[in-house]
Amino acid sequence: MAWDIEVMDQCAVVRMNSSKVNVQNDQFFADLHSAFDRLERELSELPVVLTGQGDVFSAGIDFQYSFDIFGSGSEDKIREWYRNYRETNLRIFKYPRPTVAAVNGHAIAGGLITALDCDFRVAARKKAKFGLNEVPIGIPMPATYVEIIKYALGDQVGALTTLRGKLYEFEEAERLGFFHEVVESDQLLPTAINYAKCISPDCNVAYAMSKKALQDSVLRQIEERTVALDARLPFGMGDPGNRRAQDRRRLEIMKK
Fold first, then answer.
1. In a domain? residue 164
2. Half-sphere exposure of 252 (CA within 13 A, CB side)
């Protein structure tokens, strides 16, 4: 099912609905690109609000889908997985209009990175988990995502969240600065739209140029310096210790 796009108060509100919890796999990647193709084709002057459904923004990568690839022993399959995943995140990160994540609930691992891809993050105050738990379940964090995490959260919080891999309760996630603003659930979309409309359409070029200037150093890092690091991902994904950790996580999920 293609993601829903609704124009609300001169803003394109994009609702992710690839699955009940928006796990990230080939279908999610395809839906994301289809949505942004439509935004660029039909709604290119509008700012964008990205949100999920129910109590989940996105639960992150599809473990069954991804762990099968990591354990395949095929460097080509792992590189293709990473290429697809990298392109979806950069599609949001570099989008030239204001982008706001309206975080309606849980945002875990790749799901939190999707929120961090956006210029601003507004969260609904509710019981939910947030964090980057890739490392403790045997997934080396790709260098491209580390650069995006540091850009969004700063070096200190970026290092803490990446290396410790803890899932935080809402209050701790708020304290660490995951969100620009926290509101009650009924105010989530209106507040996110207000952030998205931080400029008038007349200033779109000024915004795009300023955003590009702000991101210049991180994009140079991604394009020039993360290539060698991420070339090692097939080795890290298939490392025997990492594979054991991935298998333990798979069993935990199956038991739930």
1. yes
2. 8
CA atoms within 13 A on the CB side of 2: 10
Q: What range does the domain containing 87 cover? A: 4-186
- Write the CB contacts of 80 (distance below 8 Å, at least 6 apart in sequence): none
pLDDT at 237: 86
Q: How many CB atoms lie within 10 A of CB 59?
A: 22
Task: Find the mean pLDDT for residues 26-54.
Answer: 97
pTM exceeds 0.70: yes
Other Cβ atoms closer than 10 A to 197: 17
Q: Helix (H, G, I), strand (E, B), or coil: what is residue 127? A: coil
Q: Is residue 229 part of a domain?
A: no
List 13's β-bridge partners, or say none. Answer: 6, 49
Strands 12-15 and 23-24, how do they pair?
unpaired
Answer yes or no: is 193 within a domain.
no
- Please answer whether residues 102 and 122 qualify as being in contact, where contact means their C-beta atoms are separated by less than 8 angstroms: yes
What is the phi/psi pair of residue 197, to 5°?
-95, 35
Q: Which residue bears the tokens 């996630």?
A: 173
pLDDT in tens, 198-248: 999 999 999 999 999 999 999 999 998 888 888 888 888 889 999 899 889
Residues near 12 by beta carbon (within 8 Å), at least 6 away in sequence = 5, 6, 39, 43, 46, 47, 48, 49
- Alpha carbon distances (Å) from 7 to 45, 94, 200: 12, 21, 16
Q: What is the chain's alpha carbon radius of gyration, rounded to the nearest angstrom?
A: 18
Confidence of residue 73 (pLDDT cuts 50, 70, 90): confident
